[in-house]
Amino acid sequence: MTNMRLAVITGSVREGRFGPHVTRWFAGQAGTHGLFDVDVIDLADTPLPAVLPATPEELAAVHERPADLRRLAGRLADADAFVVVTPEYNHSYPASLKNAIDWHFTEWQAKPVALISYGGFGGGLRAAEHLRQVFAELHAVTVRNTISFDNHWTRFDGEGKLIEPEGPDGAAKALLDQLGWWSGALREARRATPYQV
Fold first, then answer.
1. Alpha carbons 135 and 110: distance in angstroms, whole number
2. Whole-angstrom distance, CA of residue 83 vs CA of residue 53
3. Statement: residue 88 has pLDDT above 80
4. CA–CA gap between residue 51 and residue 54 (Å, rounded)
5. Does the pLDDT of residue 1 top 80, yes or no?
6. Under DSSP, is residue 193 helix (H, G, I), strand (E, B) or coil?
7. Which residue has the higher pLDDT, 55 or 9?
8. Lowest mean pLDDT among 20-34, 58-72, 76-90
9. Tens digit of pLDDT for each residue in 133-190?
10. Helix and strand tally (H, E) in the chain?
11. Would you put residue 162 in left (φ > 0), alpha (ψ -120 to 50) or beta?
12. How far is CA 30 from CA 20, 23, 87, 168, 171, in A?
């Protein structure tokens, strides 16, 4: 069986954001895990328009979008699974992430999503739990395990490396094992019977 394709998405585009450090660490874990080919997607690299098309049909017309937006849609469509790295802003996830989710519909369907959050004392868990509701509406499956970094600025050094990696590295392996099971099961299901909404 060929490796599954995992898209690791950095959800924040805020100046001075911390997300790329978390994404880089997790992408490294995923790369050595063995089940996945990893595609790192930074939403700051492809700003999406704030105004959405008027109808679902127009939204689905990917071929009519500018080239950079078509490429992003293609990368999401090619993924067998997703890991979303999100901060918690004002008790939820950032607008940039919601916009990226809303610009795409079929790309998420019948695929697993794992959530990694970071923030203050709560570690961004409210953002992660809000995302579960959104992905359920899009016919995606969020896996049970999450990774959360409370007071994230104390967990990584000045170069963006984990200070005490043993716990997070173990959590990453458990999450990837779980994501691997769901990725394989859902990929086979999509191949056997195309998903219909």
1. 10
2. 26
3. yes
4. 9
5. no
6. coil
7. 9
8. 58-72
9. 999 999 999 999 999 999 999 999 999 999 999 999 999 999 999 999 999 999 999 9
10. 6, 5
11. beta
12. 15, 10, 20, 13, 12
Q: Which two tokens stand for residue 65?
A: 């979008």
The values of phi and psi at residue 65, to 5°, are -85, 160
Q: Which residues pair with 42 in a beta bridge?
A: 10
Q: Which residue type, as a one-letter code, is found at position 52?
A: L
Task: Look up the pTM and report it.
Answer: 0.95
Q: What is the distance, to the nearest Å, from the Cα of residue 159 to the centroid of all Cα atoms in its chain?
A: 23
DSSP state of 47: P
Phi, psi dihedral angles at 38 (to 5 degrees): -100, 130
188 Cβ neighbours under 8 A, 6+ residues apart = none
Neighbour count for residue 63 (Cβ, 10 Å): 7
Query: Given CA atoms 160, 165, 167, 171 in this order, what sign does their dihedral have?
Result: positive
Q: What is the dihedral of CA 93, 128, 124, 176, to 10 degrees?
A: -130
Give every CB contact of residue 56 below 8 A, 6+ residues apart in sequence.
105
148 beta partners: 117
Selection from 99, 103, 59, 107 nearest residue 79 by Cα: 107
